[in-house]
Amino acid sequence: MLVHEWEPFNAESPRHALAGRLTTGVESFYSRNHGPIPHIDPDAWRLRVDGLVDRPLTLSLGELRERFAAREIMATLQCAGNRRQGLIEVRDIPGEDPWGPGATSTALWTGVPLADVLAAAGLRAGAEHVAFSAPDVSLLADPPQPYGGSIPLTKAISGEVLLAWGMNGRPLPQAHGAPLRVVVPGWIGARSVKWLREITVQAEPSANYFQATAYRLVPPEAQAGPGVGVSLGPVALNCDILRPDGTAPVPPGPTEVTGYAYAGDDRSVVRVDVSLDGGRTWEQAELDAPVSPWSWQHWRLTVDLPPGETVLTARAWDSTAATQPESPASVWNPKGYVNNSWARLHVTATP
Amino acid sequence: MLVHEWEPFNAESPRHALAGRLTTGVESFYSRNHGPIPHIDPDAWRLRVDGLVDRPLTLSLGELRERFAAREIMATLQCAGNRRQGLIEVRDIPGEDPWGPGATSTALWTGVPLADVLAAAGLRAGAEHVAFSAPDVSLLADPPQPYGGSIPLTKAISGEVLLAWGMNGRPLPQAHGAPLRVVVPGWIGARSVKWLREITVQAEPSANYFQATAYRLVPPEAQAGPGVGVSLGPVALNCDILRPDGTAPVPPGPTEVTGYAYAGDDRSVVRVDVSLDGGRTWEQAELDAPVSPWSWQHWRLTVDLPPGETVLTARAWDSTAATQPESPASVWNPKGYVNNSWARLHVTATP
Q1: How does DSSP classify residue A15?
Q2: Which of A63, A184, B45, B106 is the 20 to 30 A CA-CA neighbour of A108?
Q3: Nearest alpha-carbon partner for A2 in A74, A75, A80, A84
Q4: Topology (CATH) of B238-349
Q5: pLDDT tens digits, residue range B39-76?
Q6: Minimal Cα–Cα distance from B66 to chain A, Å?
Q7: Contact B326 A325 (CB under 8 A)
């Protein structure tokens, strides 16, 4: 893991740990935290479901597993700050970690659909958002507060949002949210709240700092603040290069370039291009079909790498035939979110 | 109207006819045709529904209106070739019309949901696509053939796809598809087949030239051909400037710049920026909320226009916080589709 901070623990997967793997091992799955990892006694833990519901619920993990049918979903999680490093190279972003392309990982999640739990509680008139609360207190929030967030009801009742206790066929590790976490497929990782303890159905989005102030796209010259900019939800089309990984010289000649591409929510990736000349000409990569509507797609292309330094460039196209913006400068924003400009990797080829 | 061709009739709305209007008047609604406009006797006309259905249907217009509940939907149609002119300026695209930003228009459509008609016919196992056939023979197709196309079943049964006989509260004009046309909200106009006469439920997409060969995004160096490239469906995020319209000098000083922005299918536009310095700095425009999930959004910003020549630049952001690519060069493709690079308009300010 490439560790950005130890407290709170923030670490991304190195390129080689992601390359060519549909799912990411728990040992290299990225960790994005805003406070200390809580220690929760799973036997004493209860999930509370309240707010605009007919029947507030209090459920133990055993009750949750007994009362509702489990579902497995393959889903990629991606931090809104993934690839921030490319923005920092344009202009500094004080106080934010320089995430590379490894703030994204994929797992097979096991849990119960949030939709089923909400149906059991019964939605009342005025229900528009579903808020999630966790116990991990963040000193980085203003004022310091436990982590929280929300999603619109339309997404919450889609059936694809899970309350998950399993990850890659094993129990969810503590570091990734045990005993129970939310998994919101296709949305930024910030909404997949870990160590879930309360679900509140409400008329408005969560007032939590991480919903109302952070995780919003703010125009370049504006100051982040409550309600400023656009709240981030579904993940924008993005891609990056995983192999070669740029950490060591490679031999010149035929070289397989691989990477991932991902488009959130209902979109899929339909094409990936690779360029050796900075985007003047492109060659189309072989692209895997999506394994689920919410999983990344790997791609590969064998290029003829000349001796010396080359900048490998990659870009993806989504199912609307939209592609990524060219330059990180044109998507720079004060909090450093959603860098989905073309992927660029410097590689050195020495015989 | 700005007429590109008289036979077949192809004409776009001038900027001033679109500016500031949620719906586009029938007299200036863009027309994109591949063959002659057919003359159909509405009394003799019948709609045939067949293929993978339990009960093939033959319906007169009266039967269609009596048997099914009508629905109104506000939807923007947009030609996949909208803004092709910007691509032609990069590299010539022989045989294709140089559409400006007016190959898009918005209307209130009245009709019955395709979903209801399909339910009445009963879907059989293996149904995956819904094909539409029209009588207008295109000599531009290879080989010459009547116009047709298809959409996936998932979209067809969404409830938002209409079989429409009304436009802006009046009977659908002959030029826009009377007696009945398909309206596929959020998808490229090519799938909203006019003069509909047959709906075929089938396992595969339509083999019609305009589905299998045209209206596909082909890589720059490839040749268009059956199955080459990516079939176009949902409309990519896009925007353009409508006022000033660049046709005549304007006075310098405070000038209201207006335009449209649109993102197909489930996306909405959340922000529009305007730049007077080619994209180095941006100012955020005021943006209308979407009137329906499938309608464009107008925007406006008062800028201080200096004397002389200025290039106005605009770009939109969608609900995933994705924005448009900078340059038409990087999205150039042999058929000239989906130019969703930044909008640029040259204006001259003279006192």
Answers
A1: H
A2: A63
A3: A84
A4: Immunoglobulin-like (2.60.40)
A5: 999 999 999 999 999 999 999 999 999 999 999 999 99
A6: 33
A7: yes
